[in-house]
Amino acid sequence: MKRRVLFLCTGNSARSQIAEGLVNHFLGDRWEAFSAGTHPTGYVHPLAVQAMAELGIDISGQRSKSVEEFRGQPFDVVITLCDSAAQECPVWLGPGRAVHMGFPDPARADGVMADRIDAFRQVRDAIREKVLRYLETEAVEPQRTQRWLL
Known about the structure:
The chain is an alpha/beta fold and about 150 residues long. The chain has one domain (about 5-135): Rossmann fold, CATH 3.40.50. Helices cover about 30% and strands about 15% of the residues. Mean pLDDT is about 85; it is low at about 145-150.
């Protein structure tokens, strides 16, 4: 049986969408990933779609979702991805082990298009390294259910 992970951030347009796509692609035999936001933008950022397509991962069919869609659902791990210094992190009150891994919001990147897509690539690669390593190692053993409050 696959374990379940939920990625949370504010807009659910970039970081959490990238994490969902990476986990379902690389760890999909063991993990089922979902993502949501406290204030969903209503779209998946086109540069997130582009950055993931560069790895051969299509997230164009994913959608921006509210955390409310997942209230009360069980997850083995809930991972917040917002950069807590820059914005409010969502609070997860449901079952599951909660972990915070902050990454900068690439959607806030300025500059020419090359600079902006590079910001998405950097965040994509950092999420791939940190989140996948965590799910493959530290989160392998089921943890007791915890409630986490910010």
